[in-house]
Amino acid sequence: MPSHGAPAQTSPATDYQITTSSSTYTPGGSITVTITALNGKVFVGYLMVAKDEGTGADLGSFSIISGGKVMCGTTRDQGVTHTNKASKTTESFTWTAPSNANGNIKFEATIVQSYSKYWLNVHSDVVTLASAVVTTKPTTTVPDTTKPATTTSVATDKNTVSTTVLSSKPMTTPSTTTTSTTTTQPPATGAVTMDHRCGDTRGCFVNCEGNDCQYVVSWHYRPEYVDFSITRKVTGGGSKWLAIGFSSDPKMGDDDVLHCLSDSAGHVTVARSYNQGTSNQPIANSQEGISSVIGSYNDGVFRCSFRYSQVRPDPDNRVKRQGTSRPMIDLHQHRHLMLGDGPAFGDILAMHKENPLVTAEMVNLQSTDIIGDVARYPLVKVHGCLMILAWIFCTGVGLVFARFYKPVWSNRTILGLKVWFQFHRGLMVTTLVLTLVGFIIIFVEANGYSKISAPIGKGYVASHPILGIIVTVLTVTNPIMALFRPGPKDKNRPIFNWAHWAVGMAAHILGVITICFGVELQKVGAPKYTVYVVIGYIVYHVLMEITLKIYDLFAERQNSARIEHMEMKNGNGATQNGNSFRPEEPKRDPKDSIIKKLLLAFHVAIAFAFTLTLLLLVTQY
User: Fold this and answer.
1) Where would I find the Cytochrome b561 domain in this sequence (predicted)?
2) Which of 161, 176, 168 lies closest to 97, judged by CA?
């Protein structure tokens, strides 16, 4: 009987029906039970049990198929009820009969259409005990019956159907497997699904596609406490931690943390800690305010729920942040939520393998909003764009000018200097400027040098900061070397040429590798396939340099053959009509050809296409 202050309807509940997938059942077997609204009606609440037709006792156990939640009677999961007050037209469940069942049963429910309009004793047709014998015995996870059931009075809100026999602790759904053709399996283990209370009675921070989620953080606010539930897919074995942090900005540093810790045996505890810079620090009063802890870590899913009792901090009695204890977390404040996980060693939380996820905006825990957006890092994206422009386009084209285009336009100059040199110098100076600006920007973003979290299985990505520093040093070194370049006839000029080439090539190779690692960083937010675009550019650039080298070798060979032919035909310098003869010099370098210029135009276009593609991938996601 709902405590809604209104009597139950006395008319038949013709707009609602309870149906079963089979008119018979077998002991230990399962059938599907569905509550359906008819004639365009809806329902907002319900409570349903299975009753022995003879004794009236509640029988069997339920598991969820679509919506609702199980609740406890004299044994586990003997009833199902709603999780929110949203309008519904149908919800289904799997009911599993007890192994010793021996009578007919029917399903009976209270169905609530609105707060003041509800029906009692809405029931299904009788489901009879099948005479056939099931040849394959189902495997059932037997509930722990060593602990007595708890009889308690449950306080309910205006949309909750009340009952007088409930457990005061949440229970898990027993898993049942059978070969009966009428069985509907419960949700697969290892899955994270959307909390149906999100947006109704709970606020949530989620990443879901349909009902398949990577993580779900939900909270239920009360002035005296907040109930938290955290579920996330994680990888690896051993001890793990899963935590939520409360931060005044989207970056780590001086953040309050509530972390769940699972030991190697799967036992879960919850404690408080705080972030000092990018490292987590324990506190003395770590258990203060925490209660009602339930958690598990299995099948690649870490689940943790707990209650945190909040008390407004006394501004005149604050504990210093650097101390071993901290004031209670003030959950009345609006702050960014952080979600992270990683390995644990005893009570020590090791560094996370991926950067924590952070809400884009500050969160009001008193709201029931569903938050799906995470923080963006615009300075990280600007840094990435500058480096792509510098090392994919400017350097990719500038080095080609220096290596292959010195003989082209050999008779022309720009401001008194060779064409190739002006283009080469202009592109490499641009590379220097872009690299230095990008270097400064990322140091501002990271507040100095900072280690980064590498995605799982990609530890090499953690070398990105070191490689970036090396590339920057090489980039600055080369123009300084150029200031001390020896003259064309100086005996040390060959040494300079080789050193200048080696430093430039090393910077280009490491620069592109650093970009390859960088696009895989979580803060960049680029699609996973972006790294393959960078690899595609590397393959293309190598092939283009090989093509240009082959063309130059071919042109040199053709030129040598032509000169040799002219010398042999004219007597290798002999007199002709009494005059001394010398073979005619070629009018221009054979490498200065229309084909070479077309190859350059092609290379510039392709390098620009790769650059533009990478810029769009980094900025648009």
Assistant:
1) 346-554
2) 176
Contact 310, 226 (CB under 8 A): yes
| pLDDT class of 447 with cuts at 50, 70, 90 | confident
C-alpha radius of gyration, the chain, whole number: 37
**Nearest in space to 446 (alpha carbons), one of 383, 366, 525:** 383
Give tens-digit pLDDT for 311-349.
544 444 444 444 456 777 888 889 899 998 888 887 788
* C-beta separation of 75 from 108 below 8 A: no
Per DSSP, the residues of 105-131 read: EEEEEEEEEETTEEEEEEE---BEEPS
**Contact present, 38 and 27 (Cβ < 8 Å):** no
| 43: DSSP letter | B
Concatenating the DSSP letter of every residue in 312-323 gives ---GGGPPPTTS
Q: Which pLDDT does position 145 carry in this prediction?
A: 35
Is the Cβ–Cβ distance between 402 and 379 less than 8 Å?
no
67-71 contacts at long range (C-beta below 8 A, 24 or more positions apart): 67/91, 67/196, 68/93, 68/196, 70/171, 70/173, 71/47, 71/163, 71/166, 71/167
**32-82 per-position pLDDT tens digit:** 899 999 988 999 999 999 998 878 888 888 888 767 788 765 556 788 888
Distance CA 103, CA 99 (A): 12
Which DSSP state fits 80? Answer: E
Give the phi and the psi of residue 68 in degrees, each rounded to 5: 80, 180
Q: Exposed, middle or buried by CB within 10 Å (0-12, 13-18, 19+), for 31?
A: buried
Q: What is the DSSP string of 383-414?
A: HHHHHHIIIIIIHHHHHHHHHH-SSTTTT-EE
pLDDT of residue 410: 78
pLDDT at 469: 94
- How far apart are the C-alpha atoms of 18 and 50, rounded to whole Å? 11
The mean pLDDT value of the chain amounts to 79
Number of Cβ within a 10 Å radius of residue 286:
19
Half-sphere exposure at residue 580, Cβ-oriented, CA atoms within 13 angstroms: 1
Token pair, residue 133, equals: 């014998």
Q: How far is CA 448 from the centre of its chain?
A: 25
Length of the chain: 621
Q: What are 462-485's pLDDT values in tens digits?
A: 899 999 999 999 999 989 998 888
- What span, in angstroms and rounded, lies between the C-alpha atoms of 453 and 446? 13
State if pTM tops 0.70.
Answer: no
Under 8 Å between Cβ of 399 and 429: no
Reduced to 3 states (helix: H, G, I; strand: E, B; else coil), residue 587 is coil
Secondary structure of residue 277 in the 3-state scheme = coil
